[in-house]
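S1.2 Input.
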Amino acid sequence: MIKLKILFTLILFSLVVSTFAQGNFGGGVDDEDIHFGFTFQYISSEYKIVRKNNWQDAFLDPENGFKSNTGEVKSIRSIPNPGFGIGFVANALINKNLDFRFTPTLAFTDRIIDYEFKNTKTFDQPGLVSPDGFTRRTVSAVMMDFPVGIKLKSERRNNFRAYILGGIKYGINIASKKKEDDEVLDAEFKFLKNNKNILSYEAGIGFDLYFEFFKLSPEIKFSHSINSILRGNDTPYSTPIDKLFLRNFQFSLYFE
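S1.3 Output.
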């Protein structure tokens, strides 16, 4: 039985090697000065939270006689939350090992931050149920992202090539809950607000896999906002935070 498994593994490995050894696949995409494609993306978003020195102090609501309904803060956390994106690829050849990339994307993400108050009270955001013991605030974003970057490629080996890349990304949130938030009167039920425009740096790795008529590139990329994206307002949710940065982990499939 063990010998049979070894034989099957060897046959499968031989088939994979022979597949990648066939011809100069890829439709000649690497020989073009400029070529185009499209992408599908899985995105995991979370915050990096920088708290103020007095972040645990109770929020005193000026609209409520400087009283506190939420009480002191026990903890603040952000958890990764999945989203997805679809986009377009424009690739300009600089030399045989270097490309310039422009990959505009429409991304749908929800950013989550949970607050735990010492009095164990929960103040749900309208339309959202918080986990037990926490008050959850979610920022729903539909981002138009405009990443530009440099792709540094290894030498091609048959129908395989590895690469690394780095660059910057400008994003603008085209979805807004401002009207809904303005209708909420009590501070403890307000939303957490983020800046509409976000500038981030990016870095990643990937592989070019060449098929007969196209090139497929699985890619992993990390991005981090350069500046704080917190839009301060007088609520129990923005007051404890000094700076709020956005971090994205992204897995993409590029078809070119």
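S1.4 Remarks. The mean pLDDT is 86.
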